[in-house]
User: Fold this.
Amino acid sequence: MSKSTNITWHETTITKQDRRMKNGHGSCVIWFTGLSGSGKSTIANAVSNELFQRGISEYVLDGDNIRHGINKDLGFSEHDRMENIRRIGEIAKLFVDSGKIVTTAFISPFRSDRRQVRELFEEGEFIEVFISCPLEECERRDPKQLYAKARRGEIKDFTGIDSPYEEPEQAEITIHSHLLSVDEAVAQVLQYLKEKNTI
Assistant:
């Protein structure tokens, strides 16, 4: 529910389609979701880099980086997690409207939150990429030592330990990151974008 009153939406002179035509490619959000340590940020950044090398207008929204800035007022309560994802969805929509391909790397563990973000976009603009990786492998990697802290009780409500992760039921792309190299994962995403005539 919006708290703002007496506001009016202003249509822009330059449209999303105008920007896409000028760029020579489509725009969308590639929403990477999965457990901590599954490889979301690594693959999202690798996809973004490959797009950049091809001259495609792109940007990466990373979970930790966003919490350093626009979402630094949010904690990790259920409400704050939902608001974190809601804000990211709205930011991603701005990038898509600007004609860019934006990659996001957020655990975003709940289907309802991801569905809410999907509803912000037009058909084909939201590409959910499930980074599937066994919990045991994510714990083995544990690049930030978060699982270790969660196991010791230093972090509460940690996804995969004492808070659930709801796997996507119909993700556009599923990447088994424990079986594929980063280059193979990138190729899988780019192939999808080509098939959809986004690039």
Observations:
- The helical segments are 16-23, 40-53, 63-68, 78-97, 111-118, 135-141, 146-151, 182-195.
